[in-house]
Amino acid sequence: MSETLVLIDKSAGITTVTLNRPATLNALSSGLRTALVEAFDAIAQDPATEVVILTGAGRAFTAGLDLKELGGEVASDNTAATVERDVAQALAAIEVPVIGAINGYAITGGFELALLCDFLIASTEAKFADTHARVGVVPGWGLSQRLPRLIGINRAKELSLTGNYLDAETAYAWGLVNRVVAPAELLPTAQALARDILSTDRPTRMAIKRIMDEGWCVDLNTGLDIERRANRAHARTELTPAKVAARRTAIQDRGRSQSR
Length: 260
Hints:
Number of helices: 12
CATH class of the largest domain: Alpha Beta
Strand order of the largest sheet: 1-2-3-5-7-10
Helix content: 40-55%
Low-confidence stretches: none
Oligomer: single chain
Distance between the termini: 52 Å
């Protein structure tokens, strides 16, 4: 295989993963899916990675499964020796924060991958669509459950039952993406947010991410119980007067700089 299907860049705790089939709008061929699983599995085992940025090369984040390959129009590009497993499960198994930097089209399976990120930053060129109903496939990577929880069931039904496209500004207004920036500012913005995350206490932020993820799937009372138990466990092992005192000045200085 001549092209590298997934580009990995590691720098100071931040690992950037770039889907790299730009000529096909980063369509998720079997080869690309295998390469992504291998990349995500390696990241999940890498203690040096504290934040992940997931993006795409060219005009798309990813247009979803490679329909030409699925339809038998082109041969599979999967030359990997490993057995392919679920891309969504491999991404979900990454415990550190994952920022989705949505540079262009995020369609169907690509939309599902975006929804697996902890939060999304979108380029003004980003467009989202769920075309499962048009292709004739029922979602299998969580879109039917995550999307209604993020934007409301009525809006989710509109998108999924029509297959219509959603532009970046509307995605922002609906609460799907955290912010919309110019294309040239997409990766710098994601990198700046990643550095902000890195500046926090790692055991604490990991505990907060975990209880948020666990609580999102349960009712409020159960979620509050999850938080109480995590709070007590963390206090026993991580919270000491010395640690609080050491962080106090930095917290105050950051608050002053951000309030100007």
